What we know:
Blueprint (H helix, E strand, L loop, with lengths): L2 H25 L2 H35 L4 H38 L3 H38 L2
Amino acid sequence: MDPNTLGMQDYLAMELLTQPKTEYLLDASLESLHVESVEWLKEIDFWSDEITFFYKLLKRSNDARDYPGRELAIIEKKLISVNSDQVSKVRSDILQHERALAGVLQSAYLLEEDRYREKHRQLLMDIYSIHKVIRSLKKEVFSFIQKHE
């Protein structure tokens, strides 16, 4: 199957899945949104562990094999970038989002809740986007290791 087609299928599937989810967020309780944010944080911690594992795997495997240095450097750079840039940023955003929830719960203003829900929707899209990048990166690591075994 063509990777470009697969990418488009993933994109379409994401669009189909996020549409109802976005509608759900309009009616979900704040407690449900909090629970979802906590789950995101757990998933992000797992992603970080996974990326670290793959980085160490490549480094350790590199000692035993003669991997092409340029290809290896590109994959390592991607792993570091995803973990230190994207994953860390969205984790920080979610923690800030959780702190904002305390303010929303203490506020009587509906506008505050609307802003919170909008930020939650944006974070949901960020999570989907990073998940897609990480999945692609894992495939790249697997393919690289298999290719050079």
